[in-house]
């Protein structure tokens, strides 16, 4: 049924607004209600996502007693520790993983490290019990619930209300945030509305493995580049002036994930939430891992997933600005005075816009240094 303006009317007073060609319908709560709790007694939704060091989301399987025993030693080395209940945990260990995470939440002192979980996907037989158990048992310890395979805002709306009901039941005072993994084509197509679906939305991660499968991409790697995804330089000319297509010529491998990361970053920034690169499966190749993380860092991501202690070192290195970059940024800020106008510094033009770029670097360095005295010393703060 449509009203006189052509908008689709669902219920009296409830309108689904058309966006673009009409192929996407977006149901939005009125602005005045957006920050109201979704259940009586649930905590007030956050108006801003807290910015905390988030250089790595370190995954561990809570069903594995050996790994759980290492958790207290890992906690001080990471910004975010995530108990993974989804892919990678065999179906016969799902309950053990859930219970293992409850034990970690109850018994491990997290200091100022964030505790997150990745629950099973919404259509799985485990998701409801994952969310119910974790929110009611360790809700006050849990910062973020990562939802895999999010396809559209309706997935966030479902989780949003469910979590609010459970928060109310558990008497929580601080809302638990939600992080979506972008790992289906429909999820990518809907990324802007996913990011804006709830004040609970904390951020989004690229999930390159599931996304590649869902898109029918022909890579079998977990993240990273592919040697076949290249741009070929022009062929040199032979003595007759014809292109010698078989001659050696430059080839440059391209980043398979560039489009998705850039789109994810824009969607996140538009909604004031945080973008992350996901997994890099070739654990031994820390050099390629560093390159992939660095591309994501340069494009605006705040961190990446780490699956092994080797990758923690890489993420810490990449997602902390280099001391020389911080020093340069500070120099530009100092030289720009009140931040307006244009100056020449070392032969380069700096102005109101470039000083803003410099503030991004210095503010990140300061927020990381506040928690890391070694970094503070390297930055000279
Ligand atoms: C992560 O979950 C991925 O599918 O890459
Ligand atoms: Mg996945």
Give an account of the 3D structure:
This protein has about 375 residues and is of the alpha/beta class. The protein has helices at about 65-75, 95-105, 125-140, 155-170, 185-190, 190-195, 210-215, 260-270, 285-300, 310-320, 325-335, 350-370, 375-380; strands spanning about 10, 15-20, 25, 55-60, 80-85, 115-120, 145, 175-180, 200-205, 230, 250-255, 275, 305, 340-345, 350. The radius of gyration is 23 Å and the shape is globular. Mean pLDDT is about 95; it is low at about 1-25. Glyoxylic acid (GLV) binds near residues 183 and 279.
CATH topology of the largest domain: TIM Barrel
Catalogue the ligands: glyoxylic acid, magnesium ion
Shape: globular
Order of helices and strands: EEEEHEHEHEHEHHEHEEHEHEHHEEHH
How many beta-strand elements?
A: 15
Residues in helices, as a percent range: 25-40%
Give the biggest beta sheet: 8 strands, parallel, barrel
**CATH-derived architecture of the largest domain:** Alpha-Beta Barrel
What is the highest CATH level, the class of the largest domain? Alpha Beta
Mean pLDDT: 93
Please mark out the parts with pLDDT under 50 across 5 or more consecutive residues, or reply none: 1-24
N-to-C CA distance: 62 Å
State the strand order across the main sheet.
Answer: 4-5-6-7-8-9-12-13
Structural class assignment: alpha/beta
Total discrete domains = 2
- What is Rg? 23 Å
């Amino acid at each position: 049924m449509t009203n006189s303006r052509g908008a689709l009317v669902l219920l009296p007073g409830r309108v689904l607004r058309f966006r673009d060609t009409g192929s996407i319908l977006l149901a939005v709560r009125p602005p005045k209600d957006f920050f109201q709790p979704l259940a009586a007694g649930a905590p007030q939704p956050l108006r801003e996502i807290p910015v905390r060091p988030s250089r790595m989301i370190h995954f561990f399987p809570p069903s594995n007693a050996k790994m759980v025993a290492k958790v207290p030693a890992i906690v001080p080395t990471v910004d975010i520790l995530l108990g993974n209940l989804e892919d990678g945990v065999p179906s016969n260990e799902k309950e053990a993983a859930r219970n293992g995470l409850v034990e970690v939440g109850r018994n491990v002192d997290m200091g100022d490290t964030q505790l997150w979980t990745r629950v099973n996907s919404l259509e799985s037989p485990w998701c409801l019990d994952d969310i119910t158990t974790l929110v009611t048992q360790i809700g006050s310890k849990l910062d973020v619930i990562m939802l895999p395979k999010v396809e559209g805002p309706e997935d966030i709306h479902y989780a949003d209300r469910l979590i609010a009901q459970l928060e109310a039941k558990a008497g929580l005072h601080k809302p638990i945030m939600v992080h979506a993994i972008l790992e289906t084509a429909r999820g990518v197509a809907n990324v802007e509305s996913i990011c804006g679906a709830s004040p609970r939305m904390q951020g989004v991660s690229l999930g390159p493995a599931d996304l590649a499968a869902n898109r029918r991409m022909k890579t079998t790697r977990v993240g990273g580049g592919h040697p076949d995804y290249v741009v070929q330089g022009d062929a040199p000319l032979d003595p007759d002036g014809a292109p010698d297509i078989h001659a050696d010529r430059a080839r440059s491998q391209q980043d398979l994930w560039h489009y998705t990361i850039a789109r994810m970053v824009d969607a996140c920034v538009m909604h004031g939430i945080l973008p992350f690169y996901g997994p890099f499966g070739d654990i031994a190749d820390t050099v390629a891992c560093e390159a992939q993380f660095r591309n994501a860092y340069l494009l605006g991501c705040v961190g990446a997933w780490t699956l092994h202690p080797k990758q923690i070192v890489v993420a810490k290195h990449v997602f902390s600005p280099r001391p020389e970059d911080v020093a340069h940024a500070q120099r530009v800020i100092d030289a720009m005075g009140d931040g307006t106008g244009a100056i020449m510094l070392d032969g380069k033009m700096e102005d109101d816009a470039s000083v803003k770029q410099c503030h991004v670097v210095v503010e990140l360095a300061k927020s990381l240094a506040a928690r890391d005295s070694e970094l503070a010393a390297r930055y000279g703060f």
